[in-house]
Amino acid sequence: MSNVTVKLCGDQLSKETTANLNDRTIELDGTIYNVDEVSFDVPTQGTVYGALLNYQGVYDQLEPSMNEDPYKAPPKGPILYIKPVNTFNRFASSVPMPEEESVLEMGAALGIVIGKTTTKVKEESALQHVAGYTVVNDVSIPHESVYRPAIKQKARDGFCPIGPWVVHRDEVKNPNQLIIRTYINGELKQENSTKNLIRSVERLIADVTDFMTLYQGDILLVGVPENAPLAQENDQIQIEIEHVGTLENTLVKEKVTVGGRK
Amino acid sequence: MKHARVAYDGTIHDAIEAAGGVQLNDGRVVSESDVVWLPPIEPKTVFTLGLNYADHAKELSFSAKQKEPLVFFKGPNTFIGHRSQTYRPSDVTFMHYECELAVVIGKTARNVKKEDAYDYVRGYTVANDYALRDYLENYYRPNLRVKNRDTCTPIGPWLVDKEDIEDPMNLALRTYVNGELTQQGTTADMMLGIVELIEYLSEFMTLNPGDVLLTGTPKGSVDTKVGDEVITEVEGVGRLVNTIVGEETYVQHA
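YS: structure for the whole thing
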């Protein structure tokens, strides 16, 4: 059993409970439920920041172009972006696919959930500022260039499913040693590990909070591994992160969700 | 009406402009120098326009013709109120202000046509969108290390109701550094105006009440040093005062 924090639809506050990651069950008020029986809400309401090019494989793919236009030089600081609140989406709900698109990239990301206000923290003490971890699907419209902020590709409504819960920090012995798997319609499409991060979880927190404060409930995505799988209409997506949980969503055309999320 | 959020006497108040100072929502009128000015709204999603004035784009040696508007987001960490201090790290050689009209969204907007776009505006305020050019890198440019630093986006002092601004697309923008006029322009020179921005953004995402659009800055960006007082002013909207401080005053050395 793992200690988790969940927010259920209709509840004002989050609650502490336990979940069994292998059985896909959670205890609520003394009863064990299958996760499919529970309406999970987005587990935090902070700001979601993502880190680009933080997996060695992603970096290696771009590296041959890094000294050419428009990039001109390899990056020095962490490259960050924001997934704004309109992108937040729940466990088991639908991700709306814009009408003009036929595929979307599924961005399997470990989300570091911040536990307290953090400014200029050192790498050695960074994990003391972490409340826990969650699973995030950083959905994007496929795009090649990372020269300009990819707002139109990454900030669409519903493009950031988060959940189902935040697993407590102590349940994850080493956040830089977690297997991540993405399944589409039950078939394994991608497998990677946070051991391939260029900036470790601790280092990323230190480098980011060197210039910007993170607050309780903010989520810092460690990055999306190379070769993010593409999904299409009606596909079932599962992103599984060892010791953290499995996030499940479906892709539907945008017009299907108009007038209320499925 | 002009609205503010201020800290006074140990708590946070909503306030409005009044003769002789600031009127708190309990009726007291206090001097504007006796309150701590907070950002007039608690920002949710904040959109920032880069290169939205042709003359500024030219100054930064960019072609005015872009395929898509240059838009990026800011987090809540970067905002500070009127009369506060912005930190300049000691390794920076070029830090410039950007005087901008900020548009505050008043109701949920999705697929809004420009003819209707002002219906979705609540009001306006002034922002100073500092950039630390030394940290510019060509990945998701302008990167957050340049544009989303703590203390680097003063905003305020007032949120001015939409009804009080006759034509937001014809307002003078001025910046003064230590009293000297260093930047001058007009919102009439925006490449994408307020209604075009709302139409463009709401076509692919939902804008929510409290969201803010920082609409870009005209030419005239100069380096600012520790100790400089920088005033960014938008005609009829407000006059936002800020002071640059260095490591001696800002960083706590444990």
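YS: worth flagging: Chain B has two domains: 1-38, 41-250.
IM: good catch. Also Residues 105 and 216 of chain B are 16 Å apart (CA to CA).
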